[in-house]
Amino acid sequence: MFNVDYKKLTLSFNEFYDVSNGVMPHYGEYCLLELKTGTYTAGGWLPSGDGNNGEFIRGTADTVDSKEVVRWHSLERYDLSGSLKKEEVKRINLGAEEEGSPNVRFEKFKSFADKKYPKEEQFCLLIMKDGTLAAGRWNKWRNEAGGAFIYSSALASHGWDEVWAWTPLGPDDTFEAEEELKNEIKQEKKRNKNAAVDPELFKYGTDVNVYYEKALEKLKEEFDWATLPMMKKKTPVWEIARLHGNYVFGQISEGYYDNSKIVTPWTEGKTSDEFIEFLYRYTRDTVEHSNPEEKFKFGTDIDVYLKKAFNNVKKDYRWLDKKMLENTWQYDIRKVKGDFEFVRRYPPEKKYSVYDVESAERFIESVEYVYQNAALMANKTVASYAVSFGHISLHGWNLERYAFYKLKSGDYKVSVTAGDRTTGGSRDFFITPYCFEAKTYEEFLDRYLEIVPDYSFGLGKKELLPDKKLQEFLGY
């Protein structure tokens, strides 16, 4: 790479331009900035109005107003690669050093090669591996090594592997807020080392299962099938955690940007018995709809349920065969934490996860939906007809396409596409043989619109009945 020892290197910035003189960078030019606070940062120039006012962009919603800047120095006009190849170089002047002119030096450079990393949200001066200069705010990648320096809007960044050496610039509000948060987390850990136990709130100790079990006793009076695993299907579950130096009943979630634990405390009462009553109410609906006699009314052999679903779908989707289902959800019934559960996995995954439904009928219906989609995907289209229509608004979305397809098997489906300015989606509907048992096209539409109703999908009998080409396409 380069031969200079970055630990002993000094960069001297000598070509500053005073903002008060009305000399500003070119549009988008990235600059080192000296602020009125005496600290340093960097940003890309975005002028407004007469060109002397504007802001320097550091990132999304992260800017410095030109009124806060004393002077600026370009970072884009230099290529240090020639100097960095000379082992004896200890100092590099950026512009001629003149007596009486502003001179700012940066040193104490560090390198990722030595496993040195900036602090989170720290804005840094960068020497890139191609010898150019840059700057950016450090963001460590979540749950993995490395990170990036954000330097512009839309999260434009310099990857850590593009940077040869870095050194911090001055602190700012974003960095100080991050440091304050880290300090709060540190203080919180310190307070929680010897957390206090409220005897009224934790009359039965600090094992949350004791409280779940006491609530379970009450549930069993109504639902003899109630179990602890059933109760804990109601998520998020409640735990006993430490918060602000006290034990609390709380729900724990993970911070989005880091691995910190966020505790949301229970606030609906002040005693153990009130919490037990709350747990009873909190889990009651889940337990009520987990009756194993309803859920597994056809036993615990998964093949019984899958066969029912297959036969139900086969009535209309006559071409369906089991080979078409090999790459769809795979199901089983297994014991999970002591209770039987429907479980599923999607190939090629090997691990099953709980698929929680309240009844055997609901499970079979959900499997039927999977089998129907698999059958439609396997049946190639051989012809199509797109219905013409004007502007149609569907609950905030605009109807974009409404097309009928004839399938290889001789059956038909319809595909409806709608969207707004930023997103959209399509949905396919199989037109069941029952619809084609109608003797007239009008009677067909009456049956068809029960599957694809006009109030949901935009076109009704008024629009479809006069369409002679559609009538002919559907065989009427």
Give a verbal description of the structure.
There is one protein chain. The chain is an alpha+beta fold and 476 residues long. It folds into four domains: 168 residues, no CATH class; 83 residues, no CATH class; 81 residues, no CATH class; 93 residues, no CATH class. It has 13 helices and 25 strands. A hairpin with a 2-residue loop joins strand 15 and strand 16. The longest helix is centred in the middle third of the chain and has 20 residues. It starts with 9 loop residues before the first strand and ends with a helix.
- Fraction of residues in helices? 25-40%
Integer tally of domains: 4
Number of strands: 25
- Let me know the average pLDDT: 92
What is the C-alpha radius of gyration, as a whole number of Å? 34 Å
Strand neighbour order, sheet with most strands:
2-7-3-4-5-6
- SS-based class: alpha+beta
Distance between the termini: 76 Å
Task: Please name the defining characteristics of this protein.
single chain; about 475 residues; alpha+beta; 4 domains; 6-stranded antiparallel β-sheet; 5-stranded antiparallel β-sheet; 13 helices; extended
Structure in a nutshell:
This protein is an alpha+beta fold.
Task: Set down the secondary structure blueprint.
Blueprint: E1 10-13, E2 17-18, E3 30-35, E4 40-48, E5 53-59, E6 62-65, E7 69-74, H1 81-84, E8 91-94, E9 104-106, E10 123-128, E11 133-140, E12 147-150, E13 157-159, E14 163-168, H2 173-192, H3 208-222, H4 228-231, E15 239-243, E16 246-254, E17 261-265, H5 272-288, H6 292-295, H7 302-314, E18 330-336, E19 339-345, E20 353-354, H8 360-378, E21 381-386, E22 393-394, E23 397-407, E24 412-419, E25 424-431, H9 433-436, H10 441-451, H11 454-457, H12 461-464, H13 468-473
Parallel strand pairs: 1-8
Antiparallel strand pairs: 1-9, 2-7, 3-4, 3-7, 4-5, 5-6, 10-11, 10-14, 11-12, 12-13, 15-16, 16-17, 18-19, 19-20, 21-23, 22-23, 23-24, 24-25
Helix pairs in contact: 3-5, 7-8
